[in-house]
Write a structure and sequence with these properties.
6 helices; mainly alpha; 206 residues
């Protein structure tokens, strides 16, 4: 987040906290995917050598769904979600700010809808004590509630972003609007990639 976001002290601090927590969440999601890959490799080897299965096909599906739901908040805070900007780049800044706000509202509505019905699915599995129709017979509510929790956190993050973006829109603060929910320019993306490369080289050298 840029310093523009902190002009509203409370919302600025909350967004910074949300960004930190979301960064931890995406690291956890990445670690889960790495463990899943290693688990699949072990499963393939055991199937070949010992004719024994670890049932990685089922567990990897749960891991993928959970990882994706928990990664959404960080991607949104970093404005890494895909948006078509061919026309956007030619519009006045004020109109772009309004479109950014509308896009954020649309995303929030979709995620809220998705979270509601995902929760219904998990709650039904809990109420019926449903298990997977597999050898493992995994209680479905366990991966489903972990999956829903990622969407719920995404709702919290989007609510904070909407509050901050709405306040900025009312005050005509387009710079903050761009920092919160605008489309990253090619220059910004190139600069971030360069900085990431420098950090990687520094870490490798150390």
């Amino acid at each position: 987040m840029t310093s523009n976001v902190t002009r509203t002290p409370l919302l600025g601090r909350l967004l910074l906290v949300a960004n930190t927590l979301s960064r931890w969440a995406i690291w956890a999601a990445g670690a889960l995917m790495l463990i899943t890959v290693l688990y699949i490799v072990a499963d393939v080897i055991l199937r070949k050598v010992a004719n024994y299965s670890l049932h990685s096909d089922e567990l990897s599906g749960y891991a993928f769904a959970i990882s994706v739901s928990w990664a959404l908040s960080f991607a949104t805070l970093q404005r890494a979600n895909i948006r078509i900007d061919a026309l956007y780049q030619t519009l006045p800044i004020r109109l772009c700010a309004i479109l950014d706000w509308v896009a954020l509202v649309g995303l929030a509505a979709f995620i809220a809808y998705l979270t509601r019905y995902s929760l219904d699915v998990a709650s039904l599995s809990w109420a019926n004590d449903s298990v997977a129709n597999t050898i493992l017979a995994t209680p479905l509510w366990i991966p489903q509630f972990l999956w829903v929790a990622g969407f719920a956190w995404m709702c919290v993050v989007l609510a904070l972003m909407l509050l901050r973006a709405s306040a900025a829109l009312v005050h005509g603060d387009t710079a903050t609007m761009m920092a919160v929910c605008g489309i990253r320019s090619a220059q910004q993306e190139a600069q971030e990639e360069a900085e990431a490369g420098e950090r990687f080289v520094s870490g490798a050298q150390s």
